[in-house]
Each structure stands twice: as structure tokens, then as C-alpha cells.
Amino acid sequence: MGMKREMRAVWIATVDNIDWPSRKNLPPAEQREEFIRLIETHKRMGINAVFVQVRAAADAFYARGEEPWSEWLTGKQGKAPEPFYDPLDFMIEECHRRGIEFHAWLNLNRTAHRASKSISNDNIGRKRPEWVFDYDGYQLFNFGLPEVRDYITSVTTNIVHEYDVDGIHFDDYFYPYTVTGQTLKDEEAYQQYGSRFRNKNDWRRDNVDKLIKQISDAITAEKPYVKFGVSPFGVWRNRKDDPSGSATEAGQTSYDNLYADTKKWMKAGWIDYLVPQIYFSTKFDKVPFKILTSWWLPHTYGRHLYIGQGPYRIGTEDKDRTWANPSEFPNQMRFIRLNPEILGSVFFSSKSLIGNKLGHADSLRTNFYKDPAFPPTMPWKDHTAPLTPKNLQVKDTRDGVELRWAASEAARDGSLAHYYAVYRYSDSEAPRLLAGCYEGQTRALDKSAKRGRRYTYAVTALDRLHNESEPVLATVYARLARK
Questions:
Q1: 390-478, superfamily in CATH?
Q2: 5, pLDDT greater than 70
Q3: Most CB atoms closer than 10 Å: which of 72, 120, 282, 341?
Q4: Is the pLDDT of residue 317 over 90?
Q5: How far is Cα of residue 465 from the mean position of the Cα atoms in its chain?
Q6: Residue 250: predicted pLDDT
């Protein structure tokens, strides 16, 4: 059996109310309705994972943690939702019910955003001013301090411990993008900790390396099945600065400006997936989409590569006129599909996807994502498939063909089925996925069966990391005994 595997994800940004909730201090019932509407819409487009920003500026969209509630949730940092609920529990449950992976996206580097209007006394930047510095209107963590790295690691690990997340995700903000006339105020930390480095740049890169490695180890120790991924700025280095870099002319690069050696993390196996943000068009002269995407292909090192795409640019009055062309987005999708090293896409962001400018989301729904897909497996985390479900019974009823089966027993690694897949085929049709059954469901109804056809059904079990069992089969002649 088996079916197409592809990561089809979308970022849901909460900072400054970009995607959700639509405004500060929206009543909790409306927040929940909005979120359900969002994921229902994405599910119809074929999306199978969401990366939701649960920490935007040393704050929290969840209850069981040390950091203050986010102002973008309740209007005031540190103020709990009223009536009370835990948004993270709620979001995870709603996603899992629909077979959507939930990755908790944390901002790593800031304690206060430019758009922050309210900073609580419980904000870590207020409590530990010696841990942060100001840069271009932001308050940012000093990654050179071991206690800062320990703190960020503990915030991250706490989410993994307390919540049923599928992944932990960081974006491109490590050290800040360089702004002319601004300096990073980390000289003191460099004097204290940087003596063995040739220069400050190497020391900064080592600080970020240490942080990524520390978080990676902590996640694995807490829950080995939780995925860990990063979405850096797409250009690692330009070829003019490094012969192994890409044939691009980016004004800034991840390695040289943000001190994030993302290629190294993939090679070292510290992360499970990388999503370079390639928010450029195919005709952009400095960083062309296909050239940069192709550069990443030999740098997967057995880990997953997804491409971060920028539908927010589609149809904009951008200097780059290519985005006004309705075929730009489908062309990018086709190019991605030509390269088997790329295992999916992540779109920035939810609002743009739903906006469907120039019909780009329609092209997912009716074409690229028309047939459903499960996320790809990660054999280095788990390669044992669950056991086959048992005793599949199919019954002809008035409403369609009814299927029931018995749950799989535990596999040799102790893991149980996380969900089931139901396939159907016949002499006149190729096997196709009819349904994913989540939350322990062991029955399904095929309403699309046609009268007078003989069908074979197959049910497989999948575990948390999407390893799939052998099928259990049953055949039925559909009379569909309807009145």
C-alpha cells in the first residue's frame, strides 16, 4: 500500500497578531473559533502540519510555563485569558483530531519586540537585565552567556515535557540581522568566554552551535520522538565569501550576519529538518529561487529538507514584478517536485495562504495537494512500523460500506498505532487513500462506493512518526442495500 509522503505545512504567526488571534484581547471563545476555522481551511487545502508561534517575545501562548502570558493573546503581557483556557492544549488537540502535526514555534532571540506595547515585570529581560542588550529597537538575549543558553533550553524543554507537541521549531532570528550604525553589545561576554577563539564572529557562531546542540540533546532526552527543526534565512553563504556557498548575492547571510551555521547543524545531525526561507522569485537577480533551492540539495546529510516559500509576496506591488505572474507559485511547486531530496514545503504564512491571491491556494487544493499525503518518516528517530491491525470486517449498508477492525498490538519497540489509514482499490481504480482515522478510531464508512462494484479495502496502522504497517485486507461486493 503506502501513499505519497510530503510535509505540507504552514506557519501561524502570533507576533503582532499577524495570523492569530486576529486582534489583541479577542474573547477566548472567539480565539478558539478563529483557530478552528483556520485549520479547517488549511486541512481542505491539503495541509498536514502547522508551525504555531507559541513564544513571540519571551512570552507564552500556554499556561504551564514560567514566562508571562503574551500581550498578543490577552492585550497585556502577564494577563491570563478570561475565562481561562490553555491555548496550547486546545490547539494541539484540535490539530491532532484532524490528523495535523503540531510544531511549537518559538522565537529564540528577543525579550521585547518593536511592536511590544506592554512588558510585564515577570519578563525575563526585566528580571535579568544583564542577560539582554538593545539593538535596533529590540531587546535581545546575549547568547554568549551560558546561563542564557540554559534558560532558553529550559523554556523549550518545558514545552516538550508539558505538552503533546510533535515538533519544536525555531525561525531565522539568532543574532540579529545587521543594521548599519548599530552594535551588538556583547564585548564583556566575549572577554569573559571568548579567549580561545580567533575572533568574535567565530565565538558568536560557537554560542549558537552550543545552544542548538544543547536544545537538541534536551528534546531527545525528554521525548525522543519529538522533531526539532530550524527555518533559517535561505542563504548560508554567498560564493564570493566561500567557494562552497551558493551562486547568490544576498546582502546578508545566515553564517556571516546571524552567526548561524545551519549547514553544520544538518551535517552534525543536531536537527531533524531544515526549512531554508527561500522567499525569492525564480527571476530575482540576486537570489534566484531555483539556484538557491538547488544549492541545498547536496546538504541534507540524511535529514529532511523542506522549502520555506513566501506566498505573502504573491500579487504584491513588489519591486520584483515576477510575483505578479499567476504562474510563479505553481512553477516553484513544480520545481520542488522535480527534486526528490526535497520532502515538502512550509508556507509563510497562514493569512496569505487563506487570502489565495492569484489563486495560489486553489492550485494546492485542486492540483499539488489534491491527493492527501502523510508526513515523511524519520528513520533515525524511529524505523519500527506498528503491527498490522486485525480482523477487518466490511459490511454493505444503506449508507455505504462500513469497515471495522481491531486495534494493532504493541510493536517490538512498544509503540502502538497512532492512527490508521484506509485504502480502497478495485479492478477499475488504482489504490487510493479514503481516510485517515485519528484518536483511536477503528471504524470508517465509505460513502463513495458505487453499487454493483467489487472493492478491496486495506487498513494500515501508522505510528507517531508515520511508519506504516503491512495492510489487513478484505473484499466486498457493494450492493449498498438502500431503500
A1: Immunoglobulins (2.60.40.10)
A2: yes
A3: 72
A4: no
A5: 14
A6: 98
Q: Roughly what angle, to the nearest 10 degrees, separates helices 328-337 and 289-296?
A: 20
CATH 3.20.20.80 residue window(s) in the chain? 7-368
Fill in the amino acid letter for 262: T
The 3-class SS string of the chain reads CCCCECEEEEEECCHHHCCCCCCCCCCHHHHHHHHHHHHHHHHHHCCCEEEEEEECCCCECCCCCCCCECHHHHCCCCCCCCCCCCHHHHHHHHHHHCCCEEEEEECCCEEECCCCCCCCCCCHHHHCHHHEEEECCEEEECCCCHHHHHHHHHHHHHHHHHCCCCEEEECCCCCCCCCCCCCCCCHHHHHHHCCCCCCHHHHHHHHHHHHHHHHHHHHHHHCCCCEEEECCECCCCECCCCCCCECCCCCCCCCCCCCCCHHHHHHHCCCCEECCECCCCCCCCCCCHHHHHHHHHHHCCCCEEEEEECHHHCCCCCCCHHHHCCCHHHHHHHHHHCCCCEEEEEECCHHHHHHCHHHHHHHHHHHHCCCCCECCCCCCCCCCCCCCCEEEEEEEECCEEEEEEECCCCCCCCCCCCEEEEEEEECCEEEEEEEEECCCCCEEEECCCCCCEEEEEEEEEECCCCCECCCEEEEEEECCCCC
Looking at residue 61, what is its pLDDT? 98
Band (467; pLDDT cuts 50, 70, 90): very high
In this structure, the chain runs to a length of 483
Do 57 and 132 form a contact (C-beta atoms < 8 A)? no
Residue 59: all three cell numbers together: 512570552
pLDDT band at 483 (very low <50, low <70, confident <90, very high): very low
Beta bridge partners of 342: 305
Report residue 412 CA to chain centroid gap.
Answer: 29
pLDDT for 355-369, tens place per residue? 999 999 999 999 999
- Residue range(s) occupied by CATH 2.60.40.10 in the chain: 390-478
Distance set, CA 360 to CA 40, 44, 214, 312, 480 (Å):
18, 14, 39, 11, 39
- For residue 104, which of 49, 147, 142, 151 has the smallest C-alpha distance? 49
7-368 architecture in CATH? Alpha-Beta Barrel (3.20)
Under a CB-based contact definition with an 8 Å cutoff, are residues 41 and 412 in contact? no
Q: Which pLDDT does position 73 carry in this prediction?
A: 98
